[in-house]
Design brief:
The protein has about 210 residues and is of the alpha/beta class. The chain has 2 domains: about 70 residues, lambda repressor-like DNA-binding domains (434 Repressor (Amino-terminal Domain)), CATH 1.10.260; about 120 residues, Response regulator (Rossmann fold, 3-Layer(aba) Sandwich). Helix content is about 45%, strand content about 15%. The chain contains 9 helices and 7 strands. A 5-stranded parallel β-sheet has the order 4-3-5-6-7, with helices on both faces. Helix 7 links the parallel strand 5 and strand 6. Helix 2 packs across helix 3.
């Protein structure tokens, strides 16, 4: 059988794989996989689709031809797929770091390895050491603020993980500048809820 783009997207989501991760496993460029998933590249070679299928099957996906609802994929019964996702929380408030960690850890369907950093220096070192999949970054911190840290990361590393900017200071200029630097989501700390934070992280990792 030739797998469909719907099966590819659903299988990747089920495994928690980013496009670049699946592309690497299949020996493809991220752009090629992105075009296939969006339906832009409709004349994909059979060998290309087979490479994607084999990469997903190796990760624990089984493709079916059920044709009765759904997209015809399932996790192989013989193995359990569990992917640990590293998140980095950079905030000089110990209480808020612990709160965010608790909120995220309660989402039992995800396996998060949550790293904490209490200032910009620790945050940058943790970013280099742990290579997180997503960073939750506070703006107002003692010493170097979150915006300056963001600029440093972007300057030294053109490709950085999704950043969720969390701040109690609602400044349109700061928000505009942060989004211009590629911040994925800008959240208001003053009325932040568990649902908002967990949804922002899930969207950033999609």
């Amino acid at each position: 059988m030739i797998i469909t783009l719907e099966q590819i997207r659903a299988a990747r989501a089920m495994l928690g794989l980013k496009q670049h991760e699946l592309a690497k496993r299949a020996g493809l460029s991220t752009g090629t996989l992105n075009n296939i998933e969006r339906g832009v590249q409709t004349d994909s070679k059979l060998s290309t689709m087979r490479a994607i299928q084999q990469a997903l099957e190796a990760a624990g996906i089984e493709f079916t031809e059920e044709g009765t609802g759904g997209v015809g994929i399932r996790i192989k019964a013989s193995r359990t797929v569990s992917k640990t996702i590293t998140l980095l929380i950079i905030d000089d408030s110990n209480a808020e770091r612990k709160l965010y960690k608790t909120w995220l850890s309660q989402r039992s369907h995800k396996h998060y390895n949550i790293i904490e950093a209490g200032n910009a220096k620790e945050g940058y070192e943790a970013f280099l050491r742990h290579k997180p999949a997503c960073i939750i970054l506070d703006f107002m911190m003692y010493g170097k603020d979150g915006f300056k840290l963001l600029v440093e990361m972007k300057t030294e590393h053109p490709v950085i993980p999704p950043i969720i900017f969390v701040t109690a200071m609602q400044d349109d200029v700061v928000k505009k500048n942060a989004l211009a630097l590629g911040v994925h989501t800008y959240l208001n700390k003053q009325n932040l809820t568990q649902e908002q934070l967990c949804q922002a992280v899930a969207e950033a990792l999609a």
